[in-house]
Amino acid sequence: MSVQRRLLPGISALAAFEAVARLGSFTAAAQELDLTQGAVSRQIRVLEDQFGRRLFERDSRNVRLSVAGEVYAEAVRAALGQLRDAALGLMSNRHSGILNLAILPTFGTRWLMPLIPDFVENNPDITINFVTRIGRFDFARERLDAAIHFGLPDWPDADSTLLVREEVAPVVSPEFLAGRAIATPADLGRLPLLHMATRPGAWTEWFEHQGLSAPTGPGMQFEQFGTAAQACMAGLGVALLPQVLISGELQRGQLVPAPGRPMQSRSAYYLVVPHDKRGHPPVASFRDWLLGHVPAEK
Fold first, then answer.
1. CATH T-level topology, domain 166-263
2. Which residue from 284, 287, 14, 280 is spatially nearest to 143, judged by alpha carbons?
3. CB 198 within 8 A of CB 285
């Protein structure tokens, strides 16, 4: 067998190996693949003979991956996933393909989604698959092409394109404001403050930005801005929210500004593209389209 052939096992053998590795059972793998247990065992034996390495440790009751098998299983799982994605792309979209995009929950819902119909209308041959991710992740492992990320433009091995800078400001419901004496930023320190779990020091920074000492004491904490906005509209307290995410509530009068100057966040929203996806046509099309919809820098 040539070296090239030895390094490229058959897809049936790889599928059998991945199933056994994932399920931990030849019987379960055979049921999933609609094969006999003997056929699955033969496929695994072909791989082990081809590589000259044991991929599984077997005893009378159990089967488990060997050390070499664990390493190989991770690579095979990723490779089969890429093949499945490529096949899906060919079947669902013959021309331009698929864009697998990670988005932030609130920013994706409130800022990006209202724009997406325009992209779909102008790029009918591109299908976008959306997943929610907060924080950094491995693009290759997650099989994602790009991400909308909040942070700094320092994602390793990736290009970060600025989309929107963020200004945060305190807001309250009109009823909350009408029922309390709130005239200066200092007055907010006496009121219930709503906190974001992802921005634990935001209120401290904002009070310092006003030249004030931050109040101490606990307050309600939320994981997503959308939930915090709803709590604020319900009159539960003062929320420090990105203006770009609550423009609708401000326009409708559901939220109103509280006293104090807005503060620009150190971080911003970026489109992040790993270097190996720069030339992927759906990524390039999405990036060019998106940059046409971002507000101009002031």
1. D-Maltodextrin-Binding Protein; domain 2 (3.40.190)
2. 280
3. no
Q: Is 148 left (phi over 0), alpha (psi -120 to 50) or beta?
A: beta
Do the two domains 97-165+267-293 and 166-263 of this chain adopt the same fold? yes
**Could you read off the pLDDT tens digit of each residue along the chain, which spans 298 residues?**
555 666 788 899 999 999 999 998 999 999 999 999 999 999 999 999 988 999 999 877 788 999 999 999 999 998 898 888 777 766 655 445 899 999 998 899 999 999 999 999 999 989 999 999 988 999 988 899 999 999 999 999 999 999 999 999 999 999 999 888 899 999 999 999 999 988 888 999 999 999 999 888 778 999 888 899 999 999 999 999 999 999 999 999 999 999 999 999 888 999 999 999 988 899 999 999 999 998 776 5
- Give the separation between CA 270 and CA 190, rounded to whole angstroms: 35
CATH number of 5-91: 1.10.10.10
List the end-to-end C-alpha distance of the chain, in Å, as a whole number.
65
Return phi, psi of residue 211, to 5°. 80, 25
CATH number for 97-165+267-293 (one of 3.30.530.20, 3.40.190.10, 3.90.1150.10, 1.10.357.140): it is 3.40.190.10
Cβ contact 272:160 at 8 Å: yes
Give the Cα separation of 24 and 76 in Å (integer).
Answer: 15
Domain boundaries, the chain: 5-91, 97-165+267-293, 166-263
Q: Is 37 exposed, middle or buried (0-12, 13-18, 19+ CB in 10 A)?
A: middle
